[in-house]
Design brief:
This protein is of the alpha+beta class and about 180 residues long. The chain is built from 4 helices and 8 strands, in the order βββαβββαββαα. The chain has a 6-stranded mixed beta sheet. A two-stranded antiparallel sheet has the order 1-2.
Amino acid sequence: MKRVFGLVLVMGCSSSGDDRAPAAPGTEVSETERHGDTEVAAGPEPTEALVTLDAHRWKHRVLLIFAPHDNDALREHRKRWSAVEGTVERDMVRIEVVGDVVWRDGERRGDADALRNRFTPEPRAELTVVLIGKDGGEKMRGPRLAPADVFSTIDAMPMRQREMRERHRKPGTASSSR
């Protein structure tokens, strides 16, 4: 049975430019919210017509970061992961669930209830981090996951092993596994 989540997430590679489409008439935003050190426009709530978490299945490994509010543990996590190289080559995306809001690339992306219900973070924890594999299954969980531990877990996965072989295969070499 295929599980479909009602939470709306818009995912993509982080970019330094602002490639968002202009707001539709009647949906302009006048208020702002704080997310970490960034002031972010609080837009209208997304609808299920956008991309759901299932859209990342077989495309991305998702690192979900749950925090009850913007706290020291979350800021420390952001700082640690901001300097890490290797997330792109491992097809990783990071999603923060802070309070009742889902954040991606500093933008409000939806309501947190569906993710909290599905992945049940520790209720009294300052931070719960969950690694979700490309198959949509939970692979790792903890109060703080070090990048080296996450990367070694990912690199040991059969799908990642195949990705590494395919990326390092020389052009023009026939695949023996097909």
